[in-house]
Amino acid sequence: MTNKKRDMSWISQPWRSSLHRKTNHILVKVIVSIFLIGISYRLLFSRYGSGEKLFAPTTEILGRNSTDEGKCNLCNGVWMPNPSGPAYTNLTCRFIEDHQNCLMNGRPDRGYLHWGWKPYQCDLPPFDPYLFLDAMKNKNWGFIGDSILRNQIQSFLCLLSKAEEPVELYHSSDFKSRQWQFQKHNLTVSLIWTPFLVSADIFEDENGVSDAPIQLHLDSLDQSWAGTYPKFDYVVISGGQWFLKHAVYLENNSIVGCHYCPDKNYAELGYEFSYRKTLELVFQHITNLVGKHIPVVIFRTWAPSHFENGQWFDGGICNRTAPYKEGEFNGSNVDQVMREIELQEFEKAKKTMESSGKSNYLKLLDTYQLAVMRPDGHVGPYRRFHKDKKGKVQNDCLHWCVPGPIDAWNDIIMDMVLK
Ligand SMILES: *[C@@H]1O[C@H](CO)[C@@H](O)[C@H](O)[C@H]1NC(C)=O
Ligand SMILES: *[C@@H]1O[C@H](CO)[C@@H](O)[C@H](O)[C@H]1NC(C)=O
Ligand SMILES: *[C@@H]1O[C@H](CO)[C@@H](O)[C@H](O)[C@H]1NC(C)=O
Ligand SMILES: *[C@@H]1O[C@H](CO)[C@@H](O)[C@H](O)[C@H]1NC(C)=O
Ligand SMILES: *[C@@H]1O[C@H](CO)[C@@H](O)[C@H](O)[C@H]1NC(C)=O
Ligand SMILES: *[C@@H]1O[C@H](CO)[C@@H](O)[C@H](O)[C@H]1NC(C)=O
């Protein structure tokens, strides 16, 4: 099964699909059920200010050996003031898409650009694109997932393009799947758009209006990535927000249930069910080590959103200008539940890899904590063409400004693979 009409989607055009869904009673209920269940944002207004004091004592409390780089969890840490700012700008990098080019789109505040990620037990070294490219000669990288991964790859290319500008080898007609090459280093980077990772029939038109629920084949991987997977040396993969949509679930081509289909007589299985099933299948594929060549797989965790005072379709905003303090906000219940499923399935897969002596080939890029503390890093209203029918700006509190906190995700990747 292939994805039909993938070109417009809730995740890439959230403000548009909402317009039409408002006219559809059932869909509105779905949306409301998705977002209202358990989403309780803490409206705390304190500002981040004592970063200096935060990491050193914690290291002591944890009793960890802070000089032991090998044991340092790069994803555990705090955001610290970083006066020097990002490694590139909207003027030095040409890989920033308009939707995420906050500076171009008029975002006035700059504070969000001046924070650096500080793991508790070590320092995250400044990213060196020359070192990275030299280490990645003749390699093939694959980024496999949804529009958040597309968001991340812009930053990845920007960080690298300081050393070498890649050329584009391919793009799909909707620009969601693409391929670039750093020709001096013969490094190829592919982006594969597959928001469910499993086969999905998506019945949405160009405006993101669906006339039938999505059909997810929970026993069949999307071949657009699974088929080409063995050619990669490194894979960054992640699932996400699309699982929250209403959908009918199939196994063996028979309907087994759904998430929110009140007009149908199917069992309500919920998005936890479909996400766990999907990850089981994905990790089975990854841990099924056939052939000589095995890619190093970096699994990236759930990307939390930061809507306050509503959701994307009813006036939700994300206008904070500084990070949360440690523990001040842990994400919505939905975000936490989905990440927990990821961690559980990852751990199972890791054990399987360990038992085959290949644990180095599966890595966790747990960006959840980095992301959840950065309500200030989202595109918000500074997204191009981002208005509802009445001309009212809708906020995007899911995707991230580039440059922005998403750069740290790539700093971590690069440190991870070079070690
Ligand atoms: C920290 O780790 C290093 C390298 O493993 C080791 O040589 C050193 O003794 C450790 N220090 C402490 C205080 O455990
Ligand atoms: C870059 O950002 C500046 C604001 O800092 C803006 O004036 C300019 O138009 C942007 N240029 C591009 C090409 O994005
Ligand atoms: C470039 O890398 C690929 C593997 O990714 C390899 O097959 C090919 O021979 C390399 N080309 C050159 C010119 O080294
Ligand atoms: C799928 O269908 C085949 C053939 O009808 C059957 O043998 C198999 O057990 C089914 N698998 C599941 C998971 O239902
Ligand atoms: C964010 O928006 C709310 C509601 O419009 C407003 O009360 C608040 O002052 C704004 N915060 C910032 C930092 O602009
Ligand atoms: C977030 O999680 C931490 C650690 O579990 C906890 O101490 C803190 O109270 C939580 N914060 C909120 C706002 O729930």
Automatic annotation (TrEMBL):
Domain Trichome birefringence-like C-terminal residue range list: 124-416
Transmembrane segments: 26-45
One MF term in the entry's GO annotations: xylan O-acetyltransferase activity
Presence of keyword Transferase: yes
Keywords for the protein's UniProt record, in alphabetical order: Golgi apparatus, Membrane, Signal-anchor, Transferase, Transmembrane, Transmembrane helix
Annotated Trichome birefringence-like N-terminal domain residues: 71-123
Cell location: Golgi apparatus membrane
Transferase as UniProt keyword: yes
A Pfam family hit: PC-Esterase
Principal location listed in the UniProt entry: Golgi
Membrane-topology annotation of the record: Single-pass type II membrane protein
InterPro entries hit by this protein: TBL (IPR029962), TBL_C (IPR026057), TBL_N (IPR025846)
GO cellular component terms attached to this protein's record: Golgi membrane
Family the entry assigns: Belongs to the PC-esterase family. TBL subfamily.
Protein name as catalogued: Protein trichome birefringence
Native species: Rhynchospora pubera
